[in-house]
Amino acid sequence: MKKVETIEEAEKAAQKIYQLGAKNVVIKVGSRIETESYIDIHYDGKNFTHYESEKLKNIYNPGAGCTFSAAIAANLAKNLSVAESVKIAKNYVNDCLKSSFKLNKYTGSLKHWK
Predict the structure, then answer these.
(1) Global confidence as pTM
(2) How far apart are the first and last CA of the chain?
């Protein structure tokens, strides 16, 4: 696929990745697609699950994708299901984004602690 510009195309990309041998595919759509909320997609080979969260303004999101994948992995290590791991990770990253802060005039950071 050259470019993914819709949720339907993101789902098609997930199916293509699944066909390459992945047992589960999670696509972090983020701000790449114009939607009213942030949507991440989980595909297990049969079903698509969309995880939505509100779009936030004035956030600093460097590291959001890395934090998301690390949180999923941490939850899987706790023997949670993939679906539950993604859901918890999505909520965690959203909380980190809500508390993000400016580091300097160029960038900011997620707040990973409470």
Answers:
(1) 0.89
(2) 40
Taking residues 11-38, report their average pLDDT.
90
Structure tokens at 26: 């999670």
Residues 34, 95, 75: CA angle, nearest 5 degrees: 100
Determine contact, residues 87/72, Cβ cutoff 8 Å.
no
pLDDT digits (tens, 9 = 90+) for 55-98: 888 788 888 999 999 999 999 999 999 999 999 999 999 999 99
Q: In which residue are the tokens 């009213």 written?
A: 36
Q: What is the pLDDT of residue 77?
A: 98
- The angle formed by the CA atoms of residues 54, 59 and 61, to the nearest 5 degrees, is 95
Which DSSP string do the residues of 61-77 spell out, in sequence order?
A: -TTHHHHHHHHHHHHHH
Specify whether the CB–CB gap between 26 and 73 falls below 8 A. no
